[in-house]
Target: Cytochrome c oxidase cbb3-type subunit 3
Amino acid sequence: MTKLRQLALAAGFVLMTGASAFAQDAVQGKKIFEGNCTACHSIDADVVGPALKDVHERRGDEWLHKFIKNSQELIASGDADAVAVYEKFNKMPMPAFGGSLTDDDINHVIAYIKEASAAAPAVVVEPAATETAEATPAATPQEVAFMDLPPIVHFIYGLVGLIILLIVVVLVMLFRVIVPMMGDSLKDEEFQSTFSGRVYALLSGDATVMTGKAKDVIHSNHDFDGIQEYDNDLPPWWKYMFYVTIVFAVGYMLHYHVFRTGALQTEEYEMEMAQAALIAAQNVEDPNAVTNFEVLTDASALESGKAIYLQNCAACHGQAGEGTVGPNLTDEYWLHGGDVNDIFKTVKFGVPSKGMVPWQGKLTKDQMLEVSSYILSLQGSNPPNAKEAQGEKE
Model:
């Protein structure tokens, strides 16, 4: 009994100390994870990189060590899992942490992932979105049967139909009464040349008013290998349309180029863009909204911006802004604009297609302005191992 009691106490001690050590590893791992990984990873959702829930079960601790230390080396070796992750997430390389994290640090991170995975809800794996994926169709309005419409609508439809029917009946009766009264005068050449005569001819099935009359007059000296040409006018309908285009062209020239009372395409575009800017300015969540922030230069704001940068941006842009996965932030070249307002919008809304996550909702407006100002303060610092220039010079 004494030996059993000693064994039980020893087992309890081991369990207690082991649990305590695991908890301590997870606490330390959470700090390391938040400082290096949260910019690109979440436990239960894909961000720039994959969701990490239960990744230790799918890959194993040894594989995670290799991938965290140098993912590109593992990809270059042809590891199927590493290549699959790289391909799925738009070939965005993960920074190599072999020089900044020790094996113990990585163990702490894995311990945190294990603990967070146990507490996180199940991840729903969705197929990767592609450029050809169709957008979710908008809900179509529900159709209403005609008989379900209000009685007043039925009455209006019936009244309009009755009026149209009465107009047709009256016109037919007038035509049937007036035409016999005119008798042979309908065939007079003088009447047929009038507007009324032409309308009557059309109604009677004579289309010469539109097509013109054929003349049996042959052009003199227009004989080509026995082929002769008649001297027929152009169809009246063609000539009328030609006359209309001449009148329209004169009016167009006067309206747009002489009196300048109309806006040409360039002017219309500029006016529409100005209107769009005014509308966008009313919505602060619109990436096109006009902002007029000024660069912060006081030491406290820049120090705060540096702390935010090191915690959230350094994993992809380097500790000194030299660029790793993301571009170099210390040169004169910018992919999305180098003004403080451009940088603020890039930080706020991100560039998901290139792996830059949006920070709105995670950072306040003041924090985003502080980190944007700090990034501009890095200009010309020339850190070692700086990434080659990308974008346009400003």
Notes: Residues 175 and 181 are 10 Å apart (CA to CA). The beta strands are 218-224, 227-230, 333-334, 392-393.
